Amino acid sequence: MLRSLFRAAAGSARLERLVESTPGSKEMVKRFVAGGDAEGALRTVRGLTDDGLAVSLDHLGPESATPERARAVRDEYVALLSRLRDAGLTPAAEVSVKLSALGQLIDEKTAYEHARAICSAAAEAGTTVTLAAEEHTTTDATLETLVELRREFPSTGAVLQAYLRRTEGDCRELATAGSRVRLCKGAYAEPESVAFQSSLDVDKSYVRCLNILMAGEGYPMVATHDPRLIAIAEDRARWFDRGPGEFEFQLLYGVRPEEQARLAAGGHTVRVYLPYGRQWYGYLMHRLAERPANVALFARAVSSR
Ligand code: FAD
């Protein structure tokens, strides 16, 4: 119920204006978002890498509704990658990219060209790109783009969502040598026809997918904060004899930082997903939807002003 409320709020422009003008919301944003621009993001990346963590940067924003906006997003990533390289922050920092922000919904071919430009900038900077997973209606197009990009840039990563019924099959397809796959539960409201609805079914699917990825030849990226799934991933890594550097954990910036430190201290590669940019509202609403405790935190931050 709360989850659907915040998901609905994520799409409300009126609420967005209200939340953005509430001074206390800035405190909450700081917890989950690196800063309004690349400058602030770079500072946060430096702090995280100094602590032994890897990073995947995401430039926040909704889908691009115009070709101009899509080009601006491409340019932002290309400039960011060159700054990361100049600051000596690659390969520890890579980028995560949403094809919808590159205009996938206007013209798939142009979105591919923009993604290609970003992959090329990443290759020059000595790092990688991971394509985010969005609504299920875009999954086929995104995975097709991935196949195209991987011909030229084999290290381009995919994201698979355990809540989708199709994902076990996609894991089998992608558990091959050189393939980087981020496995997450999935963040969108999807219909029963394509997605498991109960958290138990999603968790069971996550474990089946994890087994396939860990048993396969690719590089699994275990993206979850769920203590049970993290423990299962550690167990599977031992079972399949995957040492440090043969898989990684990924967690969102600001979520369970003590767990991020614990995993890194245990010798695991831990990558923090680090969003930055001015359009933080939708992202923040999704984080609130995921965890009622964050709502209380948000309420306190707002009311303390
Ligand atoms: P949840 O079921 O949300 O949480 C499980 C348990 O984790 C909770 O019960 C609690 O014990 C713990 N927990 C969760 N949040 C907190 C918190 N704030 N503080 C303390 N404990 C907490 N989704 C997409 O659809 N597409 C993507 O491309 C995508 N990329 C992602 C990349 C990364 C690196 C990560 C980590 C997530 C990504 N997601 C993406 C989001 C993902 O699908 C989930 O919505 C999100 O990660 C929450 O799921 P969870 O696995 O943490 O489990």
TrEMBL record:
Residues the entry annotates as binding FAD: 161, 185-187, 224-225
A Pfam family of this chain: Pro_dh
Domain Proline dehydrogenase: 41-295
Domain of life: Bacteria
Keyword flag Oxidoreductase: yes
Cofactor needs: FAD
The enzyme's E.C. designation: 1.5.5.2
Molecular function GO terms recorded: nucleotide binding; proline dehydrogenase activity
Annotated transmembrane regions: none
Protein name: proline dehydrogenase
Species of origin: Actinoplanes regularis
